[in-house]
Amino acid sequence: MAFAKQADKFACYEEAIQNPRKDVIFLTKTFQSEFHRKALRLREDFCGTAAISREFISSDFERFAVGVDIDSRAIDWCIEHGLSSLHSGSDRLELVLADCREFQDTRCYDIISANNYSLFLLTSRIDLIKYLKRVKECLDPSHGMFICDLTGGSDCFVKRKVKRQCGSLVYIWEQEGYNFIDASWQCALSFLFRDGSLLKRCFQYTWRLWTIAEVMDALYEVGFNKIRVWFSDLDEAEEFVYEETSNISGTVKSWNAIIAAV
Ligand SMILES: C[S@@+](CC[C@H](N)C(=O)[O-])C[C@H]1O[C@@H](n2cnc3c(N)ncnc32)[C@H](O)[C@@H]1O
């Protein structure tokens, strides 16, 4: 049988797209540098298979995480495959099937994260502000941090396909269209296998391509006091190489940014 027919799209996503160890190191180091204490409570919004939450609880036995996602298939995958591969500590991870825009959480966290461009899922400013307000309310008032990532650059506006070898897989990132009126951006992800078979467009997104400035405005509006930005120019390197900055000028065809707000 063709590899694509037997493939598990969530396993492919984790293998090709995610690097939870790197993410958790970044999250916890940034938190430590701001507050001079260890981050113990994480909420991973738009968590998918909760790879970052799993890594977070595995990295320290005192750590607790909550993963929130609207897709029951992703949550079920995490329960079946992700949690079973943990040696211990799975009782320190809670998975919640919910819409992050509506989720009423009464707990308080050190860090709330929205990774892999998840803020782009909030396609109106009303939704963005509503979500960020809820985030702010759930962060510890003395030492809470929100962290998210964005992408951008002039290449976003053109139809293009990017192929990248990741272990035994090639992932194919397709940008299918950008609307200059409402800043909506259609993208899809496919996986190509060694035998030439294709798991076609198994993840599809209609995103709002927020700029860094728009997200910063929204974060200040809901009450965050300090924002730090790390930028990685993808024209310069294949890998993400992040540098903290407050000024990028000139044309960048493709970039990623991480934003931390406290
Ligand atoms: C771009 S993926 C990010 C997955 C993962 N966080 C990562 O770092 O790769 C976006 C995830 O958000 C989920 N999602 C989309 N809209 C949502 C919403 N309104 N509330 C909660 N989850 C949502 C999708 O099911 C998907 O798992």
TrEMBL record:
- InterPro entries registered for this protein in UniProt: SAM-dependent_MTases_sf
Superkingdom of origin: Eukaryota
Which named protein is this?
Answer: Methyltransferase domain-containing protein
